[in-house]
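Checklist before submission:
- one chain only
- standard amino acids only
- sequence pasted in full

Submission:
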Amino acid sequence: MSAWWVLVGAQGVMLLVLLARLAPGRTRRPPVQPPGAPVTDTTVTVMVATLNEAARIAPCLASLETQHRVMHEALVIDSRSTDGTRDLVSAASARDSRIRLVTDDPLPSGWVGKVWALETGLQQATGEWVLGVDADTTFVPGMVSAVVHAARTAGYDVVSFGPRFYGQSAGERWLQPAMLLTLVYRCGAAGATQPPPDRVMANGQCFLAKRSVLTAHGGYAPARASFADDVSLARHLAAHGARVGFMDGSAIIKVKSYESLAQMWREWGRSFDLKDATPVARRWFDVALVWLVQALPIPLLLALVAMGCATGAQRCTVPSSALPWLVTINAIAVMVRLALLPALAGSYEVRGVPFWLSWTADIPAAIRLTLSTLRRPRQWRGRQYAVDVQPV
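Returned file contents:
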């Protein structure tokens, strides 16, 4: 069997897997909107983990002050910041007594800093629900009511929300959609029908859970050593019977995660392989899928044209019996890839030419996924971690 037939078989199998993963996307719910009336019959503790976030936390704090009374407390759990973060939180607390500064204990061995901060907040939380948000998020008035209303309507015990990205450079708007799309290829259509626990997606930038469900299953401890703590925790809870969902929050949440393309490549690239939440064999299967049906189809079709396969030139080395299959499979893969661009568009405040050309970044995205899968992070948000910090 020639190498071309091997490629046809591998790509064909991966394309069928991808189509099966995307098929539930037909049942995706529309973006969550603020409810017409505030939720008043429950309570929510919002938790924000911080370490030297003075440069970007002010919009988040201002957003917290606009929330309805369903947010009866907002705990900012700080790990002894030295850049003025604590002063900003104290000033916000003076304006809104619901906002409270909490200092976590020194980081124990075997814990990632953010997860330890959230566990500290959970121990002090009194709301019926807990909502973890990142310091780089901003949200509309009524966001807390909106996420609780959405969770109740859908019957979720735990649900996270995808944001709208803003403030990105042209380079970020070119590469980030391609990297984001690898998550869709690997985990399926987020926000669709209930996936199996090992394919559940989550977003720690806006992660809502019933406090009773969370504490009954170990709090944040099951994700204590995970650099993809949101996905690790969501999959742990789903595997133990919690109803876990993912919804489109682009109408209520905005985020500016990174300051540059280089920072995004470095910081997000460390964790987006989801190694702490995914078995090794499945991670590498997904890497192969991304290469075969996301990154390679367009370059491969261009290579076939360059070899003269369309005109039957002698320099075309593809067997005539394999060529129609190769062209068909890759053409379908390209159509799927381009059809997903409009589906991603609502997640970006500004799109422009870089976004619409993000399919040209599929090979860099696949390279970053491969590098991330090969390496385990040793540094995160200014902290160094020992080599023996391993996921639970």
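Reviewer check: The two ends are 43 Å apart (CA to CA).
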